[in-house]
Design goal:
Helix content: 40-55%
Shape: globular
Low-confidence stretches: 1-14, 655-672, 674-678
Mean pLDDT: 86
Structural class: alpha/beta
Number of helices: 31
Strand content: 5-15%
Largest sheet: 8 strands, mixed
DNA sequence: TATCACGGCGGTTCT
DNA sequence: CGCCGTGATA
């Protein structure tokens, strides 16, 4: 994709865009899909088949050949990052169109017109954490009347699925679980009281709005006469309905996707949207892009063989003219440690051959698998970045900052109030908070007013009253400053100074964590400035609503020369020369233990397929006989997916070229559960010389803990400062010296 | 109300 | 293992 796009950019550099020259870069199938315009069309585009390019050229073609006004074109993508990328690429051709995710678009609609259905403009978006909090309150309150056994997290999941599937409370499909139905209904009421929406609501309420107001619908249908949707296989029922409403009966709808890459079923994505596209759009034309430009033929044929094991799929077989390339390699090792070392060995080998780190990636089924790899990469001094994990805006210290800002423009946001009312500790605890909330309800006033009138709230202590007044003064003051001042961004830092937030972080945590958190908060302030610089007329609300829709993959900076570590879900849409798929074991990938559930296994298989098809030239599939899971060893068979690929002989690493430096002919797979080893560990004493498989020879200076958590302080040869290592994890061997 | 210690439990994660 | 929520105690 980048390569092909490079050609396009070269052709167009500093010249008026010529759609003819762009069309010339396309193959016949791609060309056909671009030129077709009588009806809605579905492009089933295999991995690496240049679908992004087709979408781009189509946009250019529409504008230049068909004289479509750019503002009438809308491109919908799966992530913010994809939206930004598309926008930027087109901008480099001098073209500006609307791009965004379903949620970003729908949120804009709600902000502009949500007041028709009772939503104020200053609404906030609740993420899963906020949802859990609100559902917890809901369950607590309902529990006096009914026995609700579901955990808040499960209830949230249930509610989200219902919203994705367009199922309302009290409807036939909701009352099947009467408890959860009640939670659902009451939770929705609470959301409205907070003037908040969750992610499901963003789509759901937009649908309601568009259905209820035909002129509004007509307005958007006119505004977006040409709609292009990427990653259509991952849309849910609600999103498909939303699309149907904004597309109307117009014939200019293009959706692109690949059913074989549908990996979000567990989150409500409805694969039928793409499989039965013509049920909704009977006249739609189907195009298939089956030529792959990304991978070597060996990688492609391995991936093809795998995915052909899925029964619920549209038949298609990707082909390529690319060279054969090196074999796909399946490697089985003894432990996760060994796997990590092997990955690092191979990384170093390929790096020497000229593949930059930025063109390498390690994929895994779940984040927890990254730890061992990270550890080894770190020790070997190979730079890497982990994509995903805990996103910046979900960190506690950042969520608190956001909560403070949120209440300044949406006083009704009780979840945020609850979050910050006692941070830093000011003696206003749970009980006092509830009293204040009750007061706001009985007096029908806002939270800030309630804080100010604390003398009328029964049962508050003198100290609490004092704190309430102080908080009320502080917040009221800044509420005005933020609202009235165009340069509101200049107030943020001072605001948190007044609150005493940084000192709070410094006192509350250990020095190391405190530093990290303070840095994060400072980064947040920088992000505020950055945002304001790029969006000079934006308000604080705009900023907060933007960040509420951002996360994980959006933070990725691909400029730096680092190896990327990420989950398979994160890998969708990306490509790398060298790809490692680790943890290819039964119980890890496929994760599901229930071998009966075909559709779940098939989704796991698609996940594996997505991972494999990210590789351009080199692909390694690694598995380990033993792996640590929450500090317990787990033994697993090699994944069935490996045996589903013919011609793939699993190699033992012993047959591979080793870098002696890192491989010592001892079994460094010594585990905490090994009794003999535990006894051995207890015999290690300060002064003893030991061998550490990574760090080499060293002398024990001291130790703490015992058993599994036994730690040693060791001064390794060549080091100036000693290091602390966890004995059970370090695989130490005693040296006679 | 604040703090600490303990128990339970853990997927993937876009928006 | 490490995080989170809960319950006991000052």
């Amino acid at each position: 994709m980048p390569l092909a796009w490079g050609i396009v950019q070269m052709t167009l550099h500093n010249e008026p865009v010529l759609w003819e020259s762009l069309l010339d870069t396309l193959n016949p199938q791609q060309k056909e899909a671009v030129l077709f315009k009588e009806n809605q069309l579905l492009i089933v585009a295999g991995a690496g088949s240049g679908k992004t390019r087709v979408l781009m050229v189509k946009v250019v073609y529409l504008i230049q050949k068909d004289n479509v006004q750019p503002e009438h074109i809308l491109a919908v993508t799966f992530t913010n990052k994809a939206a930004d990328e598309m926008k930027e690429r087109l901008l480099s051709l001098g073209i500006s169109i609307n791009t965004g995710t379903f949620h970003a678009l729908a949120l804009k609609i709600l902000r502009s017109h949500g007041h028709y259905i009772g939503l104020e403009k200053n609404l906030v978006v609740y993420d899963e954490q906020d949802q859990k909090q609100l559902v917890k309150n809901t369950i607590d309150e309902l529990s006096s009347n009914m026995a609700i056994t579901e955990k808040p997290a499960d209830a949230v999941e249930w509610i989200n699925r219902k919203k994705d599937d367009l199922i309302e409370p009290d409807s036939e499909q909701s009352v099947t679980n009467s408890n959860l139905n009640s939670v659902y209904k009451y939770y929705n009421e609470k959301l409205s009281q907070c003037n908040a929406v969750d992610f499901g609501d963003i789509i759901l309420k937009s649908i309601k709005l568009l259905k209820q107001y035909p002129d509004l619908r007509a307005y958007y249908q006119h505004k977006w006469q040409h709609i292009l949707v990427d990653e259509y296989q991952d849309t849910n029922t609600a999103q498909a309905e939303f699309l149907k409403l904004i597309a109307g009966s117009n014939k200019n709808l293009t959706v692109v996707g690949d059913p074989d890459q549908s990996i979000y079923g567990w989150r409500g994505a409805n694969i039928d949207n793409i499989l039965y596209f013509n049920k909704t759009y009977p006249e739609a034309r189907l195009f298939k892009l089956e030529r792959n430009y990304r991978s070597t033929s060996k990688i492609l044929s391995a991936a093809n063989s795998l995915i052909e094991n899925n029964l619920e799929r549209h038949k298609k077989r990707l082909w390529t003219d690319n060279q054969k390339g090196p074999n796909v390699k399946a490697l089985r090792v003894n432990t996760d440690r060994e796997e990590a070392h092997l990955v690092c060995d191979l990384i170093e080998q390929h790096y020497i051959k000229g593949i930059p780190y930025r063109d390498m990636a390690v994929f895994y089924r779940m984040h927890s698998l990254s730890r061992v790899i990270e550890d080894v990469l770190l020790r070997r001094g190979i730079s890497y970045c982990v994509i995903g994990g805990l996103p910046f805006y979900q960190r506690k210290e950042i969520k608190n900052v956001i909560a403070y800002l949120r209440i300044l423009f949406n006083e009704a946001d009780l979840i945020s109030w609850k979050r910050i009312i006692n941070i830093p500790a000011r003696g206003i605890g749970k009980k006092s908070f509830e009293k204040i909330v009750d007061f706001t309800i009985s007096q029908k006033i806002g939270f800030l007013d309630a804080l100010r009138e604390n003398k009328n709230i029964a049962g508050l202590s003198k100290k609490v009253r004092k704190e309430c007044s102080a908080l009320s003064d502080l917040l009221s003051g800044y509420k005005n400053k933020f609202a009235d001042n165009e340069n509101w961004e200049q107030e943020t830092e001072q605001f948190f100074d007044k609150i005493g937030y940084i000192p709070y972080l410094e006192y509350a945590e250990t020095a190391e964590k405190a530093g990290l958190r303070v840095n994060n908060v400072r980064s947040f302030f920088e992000a505020v400035y950055e945002y304001k610089k790029n969006n000079p007329i934006a308000s604080l609300e705009d900023f907060l609503q933007t960040v509420s829709l951002r996360s994980g993959i959006d933070e990725w900076d691909e400029q730096e020369d680092k190896i990327s570590l990420m989950t398979l879900h994160c890998a969708k849409g990306l490509e790398f020369n060298l790809v490692f798929l680790i943890g290819l074991e039964e119980g890890v990938l496929p994760y599901i233990r229930d071998t009966e559930d075909v559709s779940q296994i098939e989704e796991e298989r698609r996940l594996c397929y997505v991972g494999m098809t990210r590789a351009k030239e080199n692909l390694y599939l690694l598995s380990s006989k033993k792996r640590f899971s929450y500090a317990n060893p787990v033994y697993a068979e090699q994944s069935r997916f490996i045996s589903e690929i013919p011609d793939l002989k699993t190699q033992q690493p012993s047959k591979m070229k080793k870098q002696k430096k890192y491989y010592k002919p001892v079994n460094y797979d010594i585990t905490a559960s090994d009794e003999k080893f535990n006894q051995q560990i207890d015999e290690f004493l300060p002064g003893d010389y030991v061998y550490h498989y990574d760090l080499g020879k060293g002398q024990i200076l001291g130790g703490t803990g015992k058993g599994k958590s036994k730690k040693f302080v060791i001064l390794f040869d060549g080091d100036k400062t000693p290091q602390t290592v966890v004995a059970s994890y370090a695989g130490l061997t005693k040296l006679e010296q």
